[in-house]
Amino acid sequence: MKQKDSKREDNTVFVGIDLGTSRSSISASNNTREWIESYVGWPKDFIALQVVGKPVLFGAEALKNRLSLDLCRPLEHGVIKEGIERSEEAVKEIIKYLIELAKPEPDQKIHAVVGVPADTLKVNKLAIRKAVSEFVHSLMVVSEPFAVAYGMDLLNNSLVIDIGAGTTDFCIMHGTIPSEEDQKTILAAGDYIDEQLYSYLTERYPNAKFNKNMVRQFKEQHSFVREVPGEVRVEIPVDGKPVMHDITNEIRRACESILPAIVETTTEMIARFDPEFQVKIKNNIVLAGGGSLIKGIREYLQDALKEYGSCRVTCVEDPLFAGSNGALKLAEDMPAKYWETL
Length: 342
Ligand SMILES: Nc1ncnc2c1ncn2[C@@H]1O[C@H](COP(=O)(O)OP(=O)(O)OP(=O)(O)O)[C@@H](O)[C@H]1O
Ligand SMILES: [Mg+2]
What we know:
Strand order of the largest sheet: 3-2-1-7-8-16
Number of strands: 16
Helix content: 25-40%
Structural class: alpha/beta
Number of helices: 13
Radius of gyration: 21 Å
Strand content: 15-25%
CATH architecture of the largest domain: 2-Layer Sandwich
CATH class of the largest domain: Alpha Beta
Distance between the termini: 28 Å
CATH topology of the largest domain: Nucleotidyltransferase, domain 5
Bound molecules: adenosine-5'-triphosphate, magnesium ion
CATH superfamily of the largest domain: ATPase, nucleotide binding domain
Shape: flat
């Protein structure tokens, strides 16, 4: 057990927030766990306000009512779109809403650790501080994969690969707080797969009517790489009538499109280390994020990396909360001097 000031404990809620491009989650020391899709929508006008009945909507509800709303997904490619007031406002609303969902007592002080994609830490730090200063007492911003690693006690000789929507984030842990060199972000991630799948399907079925949202759902239901688990068929309307379409090859090609960049970045990052550490890190690679749910991706990466010696790749158990759980653990363990009081 760690020593904690009991007074501080009573009056304090620690929260870990994973601010993601597609989904954001919160884990709190009062045992709440919640997540929303990272969409914020404001009614377009007075009629829209009457229709939706609320000044601001979030997540799935915002998507459902998108025709009445100015919709914002503030973190595309992992960066708060700078200078765009709407994005900053949207980040603020998301954090405020997540904290509401965590139901702190009215007089409690909130200490928050917020995880953001690795490469963009500097850009996002300022924007996040602005966004949370009104409702958080103290704050620390960390990289998302570091939060995952901390939550899973992978502090030494490990590599976390967080395959998200906007970005795939890499973080090598070697017994200290990771430096910039230990982290890398690439854009080969979920959104990229969606774009590829959309264009493959448009090419193969020019008369079928579908949108990006449907394409993402096809992917989430049927994603796989390498071995075909069976024919993948989905219903897509043609001239207003539902028709079954075979999308097996398109799904595979789209999911596989992110693999070369992931393998390349992994080998590059590990190659910087001494051979002795290389072996240790390679035997402790952990996949996180929604992309870790792609069937066969763990096996694929393990085999691809084996070309250069033994290697073990595993997946986190709970990709939805691995980031926010880790951020919470960090918040609870953090010595006072690391906190930034707002
Ligand atoms: N079963 C699945 N198969 C393939 N992809 C999936 C599956 N489930 C979710 N995804 C994808 O994972 C991505 C979301 O993952 P995650 O919540 O980790 O991202 P994020 O944290 O919002 O994004 P980022 O880390 O880039 O900011 C989306 O692209 C989503 O479509
Ligand atoms: Mg993420």
